[in-house]
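hey so i finally got around to running the thing on that chain from the lab meeting. sorry it took forever, my laptop kept dying and i had to restart like 3 times. anyway pasting the input first so we r on the same page abt which one it is
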Amino acid sequence: MIKKRRESRTKQRNGHNDYKKIRGSQKCGPLFLYTSEVYLSSMRRLIFLLVCTAFFACNDSNYPKAENALDAGREFIDAFLKGDSKKAEAYMLIDDENMELLKKMHRQLKNRNPEDQQGYKESSIIIGDVDNVSENEVVIQYKSSYDRTGRKIKVINKDGEWLVDLKYTVNPNL
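ok and heres what got predicted. didnt touch it at all, straight out
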């Protein structure tokens, strides 16, 4: 009888009905609960840090800002040929028409056979003429070392940032 009272008082003091039922061992007790709470707290912090890291890793600020039109054009072309649409977007003027054109160009690149895709990924960019149309507009003629087909892109300076305008690639009269 006295033994039962001591056990019930111990259970009431510890705030848990039966520590032995938790893990099925004799060693469970308040220390076990404390360490598991610390473990869960640490895991929550770790998960929070991982989520924050993933969120900030997706930010476009990972790519350095282009210092001039040639840098912006070269980075865009290289990213496009390698299939890195996120990097290409970072160096592109963002509007609905440009985004649709970029998606269309990526689809065309992905629909090519695997040998062509690999060839474009490994190719170098050959810069031809660089025409300064105005202070804020530059047209770059280039070829890839894989197919050597001449192409043009227009790079504009918008709010102090050099960005590729794909609309010119489709309609050079702009």
